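hey team, just a heads up i'm posting the complex here instead of the shared drive bc the drive is being weird again. everything in one block, sequence lines first with there labels, then the predicted structure for the whole assembly after. its two chains so it's a bit long, scroll down
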Amino acid sequence: MELYSHEYFMNEALKQAKAAFEDGEIPVGAVIVCRNKVIARAYNQTETLNDVTAHAEMLAITSAANYLGAKYLVDCKLYVTLEPCVMCGGALYWSQISEVHYAASDPRRGYLQSNTGILHPKTKVYSGTMGSESEALLLQFFQNLRK
Amino acid sequence: MELYSHEYFMNEALKQAKAAFEDGEIPVGAVIVCRNKVIARAYNQTETLNDVTAHAEMLAITSAANYLGAKYLVDCKLYVTLEPCVMCGGALYWSQISEVHYAASDPRRGYLQSNTGILHPKTKVYSGTMGSESEALLLQFFQNLRK
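-- predicted structure starts here --
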């Protein structure tokens, strides 16, 4: 079995972010990987679904649990193009996910703003993979919005 | 028009918590009120929906936005039987809800554990209404679980 790299999976998340961009949504995408396989793909749909809770990570968590038939994502990894917000960090805590990989940081609303442990103590966090690609997409989105 | 009290609305939330209890779910219930009218009712369904994100507050936020046809709940009040967790606190931030009323405190996983502002600065918070009724229901649930 071919083992995919973190870059491969983050690029899959970035494809989701690009789909959000095409739909006029803030371009954030996520995939959840279990045993080297993408089991959930989602992008931000807050406008389309008229729902502030419809962040890419939330939709991916629900979708992955549905695929697995299990509430807890203990053997899963999240790849997301932007640092999760407090809501998504709280949801990831409940999911007990093994790893969180995010591309770009979000100094304004990222969960790291809060200085207490939001994620589960068992969850390992990695950041920066394809961060500049994700940032460029977000920047382009907000520049278009201001035009 | 008759104006209902906070106790009236919290009791409506408590009815939802009791429905959760009957379904074998951790008994937490919520209602969202807009202009003196309940526009959304929900209870915790994490077991039934096999989804860690299916807290009463999350389902109520989605339902209220659907009812209003508007993403932001600026003129709405949440009544919930337990202090919201970090995930729900983060969702309430995005919703820009006017008021949050919770019955019982959750010193273990309540959003107040985090010492940075999780809720929106415009959101007013009230606590304690029917707190002992909510606590008694939760206690009974966990005592039954241990039997």
